[in-house]
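Fold this sequence, please.
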Amino acid sequence: MVETRGWVAAVESADAMVKAARVRFQRYDVTRDARVTVLVRGPLADVEAAVAAGSAAAKRVGELLHAHVIAAPDPNLEFMLESLRR
C-alpha cells in the first residue's frame, strides 16, 4: 500500500504500480487531510516492486506519506482488505 497526500500523487502512484509489476489494483481510500491510500495485491516480489515504483512516482508529483508491504496478511484481516472495494 502507498499513502499520499493528494489525489494526483495517488493516481500517479497507482498507475506506476500496475505498470511496474504483475499486481492488481485492489482499492483506494480517501481520508481527511487529503490522505489517499492505494492498495494493490499480488505475489510478494511483484508487490514489493510495485510499491517501490508507486512510491517513486508519488514523490515525483506530490507528497508520499507512507509505503508498506504486508507479506502474508492474516486471514482475519481479509475483511478489511476486501470489504471496501471500489
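The radius of gyration is 12 Å. The helical segments are 7-20, 44-61, 78-82.
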